[in-house]
């Protein structure tokens, strides 16, 4: 089956790359709602033209609508996840080829993955392949800013799914993603007492002094062996140099691999003791994505993908990566999840984002083969 699928995609290579160019040139960063709507129209048109299915649009109040289509029948379902928004401002990257590299906004992250999913569905139809279950394809438009308008839809569709496959790009060396870190943000506000720095220094309570002590303790929570990083990225305080500062604040970014580690960091920061007598503190927690842990189900999916890859002449391993995706929330539900099943490229979120041209067709065949091989 792998060779049959690979031949089909190679026979249609020109059309596939034509569709990819069409979608990549429909530029849209998450914040540009008008451009995002136009990109969505192109995506919907490609689904109709290539699969014959009528896409369903979930309209969201904030304008970041989701697009869904389905293929196959049966009580069991697989969820195929992708996003059509990018981080790039319009015109930031010229669509071009240089050797084996295809450059363009979102070409790797992750419009190539969307085209992979659409052409997988087309291949099944044209080759008369029954996937043996219901395939639910869901593409959102706000992944790059946290999927706040779409996560409920995606998680709802993931309920009772056999597995979820995420068409984000693979790692730069070709590996798939079996785990992703979760993230939390903390906004800490310190309250002190203002006084004259010369005449009444003793009467003041220095909020910046307390902030400095806390920053040192919080930075020390980083544990590289556990895969936990804690970073104070913003801090501010005070009004004038001759005034004991009455207020200070700082923000913390934390990335962690396990739910246990996330709870440890929350507890340590919330319960941090005051160092400067009389000072007080408030902590706001901004929850991000839960970690996509390397569960048994996730690793079994990777094993199946590796075997499909072997039959296609592909060799790759797996990695636990730092950035999150929509696979995090689905995996946290207990749904076996495998990420990195889109194109092979590098430079995501930069002006040098590219897709490896020679490796794109085999990666589509990998996705199409894996869907049929999941038991």
From TrEMBL:
<dbReference type="Pfam" id="PF01546">
    <property type="entry name" value="Peptidase_M20"/>
</dbReference>
<keyword id="KW-0479">Metal-binding</keyword>
<dbReference type="InterPro" id="IPR017150">
    <property type="entry name" value="Pept_M20_glutamate_carboxypep"/>
</dbReference>
<dbReference type="InterPro" id="IPR011650">
    <property type="entry name" value="Peptidase_M20_dimer"/>
</dbReference>
<keyword id="KW-0378">Hydrolase</keyword>
<feature type="domain" description="Peptidase M20 dimerisation">
    <location>
        <begin position="178"/>
        <end position="271"/>
    </location>
</feature>
<dbReference type="Pfam" id="PF07687">
    <property type="entry name" value="M20_dimer"/>
</dbReference>
<dbReference type="InterPro" id="IPR050072">
    <property type="entry name" value="Peptidase_M20A"/>
</dbReference>
<protein>
    <submittedName>
        <fullName>M20 family metallopeptidase</fullName>
    </submittedName>
</protein>
<dbReference type="InterPro" id="IPR002933">
    <property type="entry name" value="Peptidase_M20"/>
</dbReference>
<dbReference type="InterPro" id="IPR036264">
    <property type="entry name" value="Bact_exopeptidase_dim_dom"/>
</dbReference>
């Amino acid at each position: 089956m792998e060779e049959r699928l690979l031949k089909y995609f190679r026979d249609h290579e020109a059309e596939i790359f034509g569709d990819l160019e069409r979608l990549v040139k429909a530029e849209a960063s998450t914040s540009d709602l008008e451009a995002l709507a136009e990109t969505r129209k192109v995506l919907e048109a490609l689904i109709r033209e290539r699969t014959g299915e009528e896409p369903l649009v979930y309209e969201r109040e904030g304008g970041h609508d989701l697009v869904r289509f389905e293929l196959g029948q049966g009580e069991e379902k697989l969820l195929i996840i992708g996003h059509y928004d990018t981080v790039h401002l319009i015109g930031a990257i010229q669509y071009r080829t240089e050797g084996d590299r295809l450059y363009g906004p979102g070409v790797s992250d992750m419009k190539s993955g969307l085209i992979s999913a659409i052409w997988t569905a087309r291949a099944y139809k044209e080759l008369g392949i029954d996937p043996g279950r219901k395939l639910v394809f869901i593409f959102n438009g706000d992944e790059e800013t946290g999927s706040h308008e779409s996560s409920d839809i995606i998680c709802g569709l993931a309920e009772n799914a056999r597995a979820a496959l995420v068409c984000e790009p693979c790692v730069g060396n070709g590996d798939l993603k079996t785990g992703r870190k979760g993230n939390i943000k903390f906004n800490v506000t310190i309250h002190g007492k203002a006084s004259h720095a010369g005449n009444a220094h003793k009467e003041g309570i220095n909020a910046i002094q307390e902030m400095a002590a806390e920053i040192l303790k919080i930075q020390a929570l980083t544990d590289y062996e556990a895969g936990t990083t804690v970073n104070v990225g913003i801090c501010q305080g005070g009004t004038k140099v001759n005034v004991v500062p009455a207020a200070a604040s700082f923000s913390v970014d934390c990335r962690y691999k396990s739910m246990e580690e996330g709870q440890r960091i929350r507890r340590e920061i919330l319960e941090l003791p005051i160092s400067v007598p009389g000072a007080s503190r408030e902590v706001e927690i901004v929850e991000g994505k839960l970690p996509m842990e390397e569960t048994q189900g996730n690793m079994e999916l990777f094993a199946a993908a590796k075997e499909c890859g072997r039959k296609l002449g592909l060799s790759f391993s797996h990695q636990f990566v730092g950035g999150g995706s929509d696979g995090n929330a689905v995996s946290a539900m207990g749904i076996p999840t495998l990420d990195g099943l889109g194109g092979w490229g590098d430079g995501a979120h930069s002006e040098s984002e590219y897709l490896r041209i020679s490796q794109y067709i085999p990666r589509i065949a990998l996705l199409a083969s894996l869907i049929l091989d999941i038991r």
